């Protein structure tokens, strides 16, 4: 479990490509201070497991399913990546609860600077956008951000200078593919309420009748 508060920018040292997988080695320093083999590290928002550990780098195996669901297939040698260690229960939760399990990818279709802020517009599939809520939280390449605008085809976030400086978000450009993890709370609520599920041949969704039947009103 992570918070979406990026701790360090790592650099891709080596990529060994299989037919559908990769072995990824990343140079870093802060992340390695108390690291051990088997630890979880968020790499651009993706929860990866340390399989090899050196003095200035770690290696992780990336399986085919992760390659299909994320933008790791676009990584190149020497490229910078967002890194975060797993959350300690004693830490402040500066961002929001992030699992490191990517819901899908989006494409940056707009970038505009407004005074000290950078507006990023992201086009995403409907399966992702259904969980994007105005003023809610979203993790983009592992960076916890607030949704500033959302409609049926895209959403926008606004970066402060600090976020742009210490994460890879500040260098994103139009056309880039980005990892998206929606706030897990919305997905659990949908699952528990059975929204959108088929039951006895009828679609069950939120309505005043449904809320009354289940004791909410």
Topology summary:
Layout (H helix, E strand, L loop, with lengths): L7 E10 L4 E6 L12 E4 L2 E8 L3 E6 L1 H6 L10 E6 L18 E11 L2 E7 L2 H4 L7 E4 L2 E8 L3 E6 L1 H6 L10 E6 L1 H10 L3 E3 L2 E3 L3 H6 L4
Antiparallel strand pairs: 1-2, 1-6, 2-5, 3-4, 3-6, 4-5, 7-8, 7-12, 8-11, 9-10, 9-12, 10-11, 13-14
Can you tell me about this structure?
The protein is mainly β. The chain has two domains: 78 residues, Elongation Factor Tu (Ef-tu), domain 3 (Beta Barrel), CATH 2.40.30; 86 residues, Elongation Factor Tu (Ef-tu), domain 3 (Beta Barrel), CATH 2.40.30.20. Helices cover 15% and strands 41% of the residues. A hairpin with a 3-residue loop joins β10 and β11. The longest helix has 10 residues.
Structural descriptors:
Elongation Factor Tu (Ef-tu), domain 3; single chain; 217 residues; mainly beta; 14 strands; 5 helices
Q: What is the beta-strand fraction?
A: 35-45%
What is the average of the pLDDT values?
92
**Poorly predicted residue ranges:** 198-202
Helix share, percent = 10-25%
- Please work out how many helical segments DSSP would assign: 5
The CATH class of the largest domain is identified as Mainly Beta
Give the quaternary arrangement of the chains. single chain
Give the strand order of the largest sheet, numbering strands 1, 2, ... along the chain: 1-2-5-4-3-6
Largest sheet: 6 strands, antiparallel, barrel
What is the fold-level CATH name, i.e. the topology of the largest domain? Elongation Factor Tu (Ef-tu), domain 3
Number of strands: 14
Count the domains.
2
Spatial separation of the terminal alpha carbons: 34 Å
């Amino acid at each position: 479990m992570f918070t979406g508060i990026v701790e360090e920018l790592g650099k891709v040292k080596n990529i060994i490509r299989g037919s559908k997988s990769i072995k990824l080695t990343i140079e870093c320093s802060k992340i390695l201070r108390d690291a051990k083999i088997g630890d979880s590290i968020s790499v651009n928002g993706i929860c990866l497991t340390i399989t090899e550990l050196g003095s200035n780098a770690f290696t992780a195996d990336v399986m085919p399913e992760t390659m299909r669901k994320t933008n790791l297939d676009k990584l190149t040698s020497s490229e910078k990546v967002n890194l975060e260690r797993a959350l300690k229960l004693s830490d402040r939760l500066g961002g929001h609860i992030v699992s490191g399990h990517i819901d899908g990818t989006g494409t940056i279709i707009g970038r505009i600077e407004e005074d000290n802020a950078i507006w990023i517009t992201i086009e995403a599939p409907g399966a992702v956008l259904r969980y994007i809520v105005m003023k809610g939280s979203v993790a983009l390449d592992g960076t916890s951000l607030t949704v500033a605008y959302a409609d049926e085809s895209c959403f926008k976030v606004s970066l402060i200078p600090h976020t742009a400086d210490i994460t890879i978000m500040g260098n994103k450009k139009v056309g880039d593919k980005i990892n998206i993890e929606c706030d897990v709370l919305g997905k659990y609520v949908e699952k528990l309420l059975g929204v959108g599920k088929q039951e006895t041949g009828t679609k069950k969704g939120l309505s005043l009748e449904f809320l009354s039947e289940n004791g909410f009103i």
